[in-house]
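Why predict the complex rather than its parts? Because the way molecules touch one another can change local conformation, and only a joint prediction can capture that. The input here totals 420 residues.
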Amino acid sequence: MTAPAKGRLRVNRGSLDVRDRLIEAALAEFAARGYDGASTRTIAAKAEAHQPQINYHFQSKDELWRAAVERLLDEMAATMAEHTEGIDRHDDAAMLAAIIGGLVHFAARRPELNRIMMHEGTTLGPRLTWLVDNHLEWRFADLVYRWDAVTALGVAAPLPSGILYHLLLGAASLLYANAPEARLLGVDPDSPELIEAHAEALVSMLLPGR
Amino acid sequence: MTAPAKGRLRVNRGSLDVRDRLIEAALAEFAARGYDGASTRTIAAKAEAHQPQINYHFQSKDELWRAAVERLLDEMAATMAEHTEGIDRHDDAAMLAAIIGGLVHFAARRPELNRIMMHEGTTLGPRLTWLVDNHLEWRFADLVYRWDAVTALGVAAPLPSGILYHLLLGAASLLYANAPEARLLGVDPDSPELIEAHAEALVSMLLPGR
DNA sequence: GTCTATAATTAGATAGAC
DNA sequence: GTCTATCTAATTATAGAC
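Output of the joint prediction:
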């Protein structure tokens, strides 16, 4: 059977390669220029494909965007799993420290996700509501739950839990999301020493009682 | 003499009003949708003007963008001046505390500037280099200078100065820059109590020895 | 699945009457 | 200064040959 599988379960190597390259090119363009600023022609060219192949492999520019975001979210989940590996999931302080460190390291390695979220978070629209409903809400709730726990333990900085999510993500990721700006200012956001110092400082600032 | 003054020194009230409305509409649109996503037609409509008036009062979409950003930067400077009023400019710890608080309050009241900077900071281009060269570089340097001073005094969190700028701006402004996202998550970024708690928490986290 | 050609829409900018 | 009409270029999406 060499016939291509239908839907997303395709096995054919050639088409998988194109889909793959299109997603990779798309997430870079969406991150750099925002949804409106990214053109499907530019994305296709970057993937060494033709523009109509986007509408063949994905229904629309919008679906391509979703596929790109979901790839990034999967990678973030994998990074977070690595960083929390072996930690007692009920040890909220240890889990939070690992989560904070994981967020910094992921933002440094794959700044595209934070870039896309900062682009989309500035205006209410279907992409933002899709993001929140499908991917952000439970992460937010999990973070708040753990924060309330460590606050009760006296380990946390005096920060209302409603503020935590954005303060943490902003502090962890802006340096990498806006890496082009940082470089113009003389900072090297790719330095492993800087990234590690960043992660450690953020943990000690948010969990000073640890 | 009822003839209109030339260049930017115009006195005519009618034209000043249009310029003013166009700038206000433009900064809202650029902040919400990014430079590419904002259309001059939409901006003109929001300002109750016609699209060609943008090219009459400004040379181009690009110049309109600059005018909008400069208005926001002027407002930020005014807010920072209020917050640092009466403080000894050589008292670096007190100045930094006031600057941190001022940044949080300004981001909450006028999130457009941080939104625009987050949009532009994701890719290297003429607008970003203009921002850095003309407005960001000296602010960055001032912040680093003061941070090194309070670090020597043992007042600061253990944070390399190269990280400070983006960590501080991200922690101070993402909640307001991405206010639509925060609202979907059940947070109210307009609450005065939340804003004040945010400012105080950030000061105590960054300057624990104070 | 790929590729060329193109449809349908919208973008920023300009010409010229008033 | 304002406003209508329009130019040129770019956009996403589709049709149809291969």
